[in-house]
């Protein structure tokens, strides 16, 4: 059963349609790269999938036991977010906010899982550091750990290597691939770097105006 199903979906903002005729399914363990030119609607599609805005047409369904608050999300950072005055551990723990409800504290289990997430991305020794004092690559790894705390099933990543140097980008892609293969976490990622993502992605969704189609690189879609 598919974790995510898009049927005849159109997305945009206001009354302006940027993409339509969107039909695809995502299954558990897929690693999917969404590729396209700037302004082609990639981020708008991703926000619609996440429920941050409504589709202008069509239907989006979650299945296979996946719920909306169980999707880990790594958005593009703003300048203000990069300068956020919180500790690394506090940033990572905030990944549980979608599931802890109005509870004003984090449990021992959540704190232990946050430390484990930091370990998974190679940032455990920085847990007490101030987030804004980290390099760009380190900050992205912290945000990946935050997304990992939010889910054991699916992560949605919007340009996770934006602004990183080639080495940091390659390291980030390898870490994401390991999480996908080792834990079976489904990856849905926007990326411009097809040369690198082709090494790891099971499918590439090429986004253009006015529709979307999938190119299979392995696995099933």
UniProtKB/TrEMBL annotation:
Domain ABC transporter: 4-221
Domain of life: Bacteria
GO MF assignments: ATP binding; ATP hydrolysis activity
Alphabetized UniProt keyword annotations: ATP-binding, Nucleotide-binding, Transport
Family affiliation: Belongs to the ABC transporter superfamily.
Protein name: ABC transporter ATP-binding protein
Source organism (scientific name): Lentihominibacter faecis
């Amino acid at each position: 059963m598919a974790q995510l199903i898009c049927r005849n979906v159109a997305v945009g903002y206001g009354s302006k349609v940027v993409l339509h005729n969107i039909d695809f399914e995502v299954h558990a363990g897929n690693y999917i790269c969404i590729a396209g030119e700037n302004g082609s609607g990639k981020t708008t599609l991703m926000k619609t999938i996440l429920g941050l805005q409504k589709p202008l047409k069509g239907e989006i369904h979650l299945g296979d036991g996946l719920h909306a608050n169980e999707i880990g999300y790594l958005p593009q950072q703003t300048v203000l977010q990069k300068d956020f005055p919180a500790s690394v551990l506090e940033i990572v723990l905030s990944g549980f906010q979608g599931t802890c409800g109005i509870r004003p504290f984090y449990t021992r289990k959540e704190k232990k899982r946050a430390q484990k997430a930091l370990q998974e991305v190679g940032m455990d020794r920085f847990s007490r550091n101030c987030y804004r004092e980290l390099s760009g690559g380190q900050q992205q790894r912290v945000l990946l750990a935050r997304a990992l705390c939010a889910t054991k099933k699916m992560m949605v990543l919007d340009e996770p290597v934006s602004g990183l140097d080639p080495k940091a980008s390659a390291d980030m892609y390898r870490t994401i691939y390991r999480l996908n293969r080792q834990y079976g976490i489904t990856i849905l990622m926007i990326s411009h770097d097809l040369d690198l993502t082709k090494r790891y992605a099971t499918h590439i969704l090429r986004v253009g105006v006015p529709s979307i189609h999938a190119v299979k690189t392995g696995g099933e879609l």
